[in-house]
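INPUT
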Amino acid sequence: MNKPQSYPFAMRVMHWLMAALVLSLLFAGLTMVKSLGPWQQQLLAWHKAMGLIALLAIVVRLIIRLRSDTPTLPASVPNMQQLAAKLTQLGFYLLLFVMPLSGYLMQNAAGRPLSLFGLPLPSLLHTDLALYGLFREIHGWAALLLVLLIVVHSCAALYHGLIKRDGVFRSMVRK
Amino acid sequence: MRYVLFTAAAGAVVAAAVYAVTVSGRAPVSAQDFVNLQQGDTIQMGFRRAHANGFCISGEFQASGELAAYSSAKALQPGSYPFIGRMSIAGNNPTAPDLRAPVRSLALTILPDTADQWRTAMNTPPVMAVATPEKFYQQLLAIQSNTVPQFFADHPETAHFLEWRSHYQPSQSYATERYHSINAFYLVDRQGKRQAVRWAALPLTDDAGVIADEEAPDALQQEFFNRLQQGPVRFDVQFTLATANDDPADATIPWPETNPQLSAGTIVIEQASVQQEGACNALNFDPLVLPAGFAPSADPILRARAAAYAESHRRRAREVLMQQFAGGANE
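OUTPUT
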């Protein structure tokens, strides 16, 4: 069976929408933990709501991914790079689950109520300082790891798109 | 070769990002700067960076319902609601002598573990000395460098705070102090109408209390624990409504005593415990954890409190987590 040249439309749309969402969430998160500005609370509320949407989005995306036929990298890509690409993808899926889940759980452990558009959400943990510490640190460090992964991924994509021109970049852009 | 180029490019992007986030330009005062300044040179592992010395309390808030017309919040409808709270003194040292502290606090989380919870952290001064986080940071710097008189002279808005301080007499008990929300908030009714308010916990006892040892780090704690043996300690929660003349965003100016005042109910403190064993230890008394029916004012200090408290909470939670890891490894 021939592999497709490009990712299916649904996956391409999810990829770019989530790229925008995740970048916004990361910048909002990294800014709001430092800022004393009066807009900080608004950003925080927005970050929580959008984070929950990102959790729904990654679930949907994983389902689409598992049901889709995805292109393979061209044979011209060395084995080490093939492996690196697979690990990067795996890392993205993992971190995109870890980020919203740790965010949710750290709010639970801090005893803070959560709601999505006014609808109260259940608390899955009891209030506990060490548990808060665990999920707060996971949330913070996973965010930095995600930033690093995005940098590596973007550099590799641009390398394929601008220098190699081997169709890898195109596979996420058009049919 | 292409690996080298790739690595160099990736490295350059990371370096640029780190530079942009951390050192570019003149960074405004951050939550981390604040907490660094508050915690001082000696880190008290696992303790709050400000108001480190304190203890946990619990009991119930008996709401009168007098404020129910102004707010849809459950805690302001008639009824009895449990709370977890904390009494503390200002400072970063958990073993500082209670009676030497210039500020005392009463913090409450009413209706904990529910979507209706209302957190408030109240202090003995009724007003802030300055109105912005940047100036408050300068005030803390002035305290550290012993230039407070100069700071007050340079900031005329400190006049009301100084006026209060000039005739404030610390009492012999946490039970006989007045604790103020300092910042203003809005009450929001079911139609969405907003009313700016401040509130205060006013003592309901005139029993002055007995201090056994004035120099004891926990002199006030001992007094309070002894007092609770005789029965609950009560405070009246009094709300002051703003008029058109009051600016809810400026915490340096007291509101006139002629403003309407309503009693939201009574805080009944029934139990107390040392903080490491109490339910209050896991809580960050962030004054912006507000239920529906409350909204924050535009006061920049109020907004900054939430960010600084969150950083303090993160640090001590991390330390307690590490202590648990270390404890587990040693067993």
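end of record. The beta strands of chain B are 54-63, 79-89, 104-110, 118-123, 179-180, 185-188, 194-203, 233-241, 261-274, 294-296.
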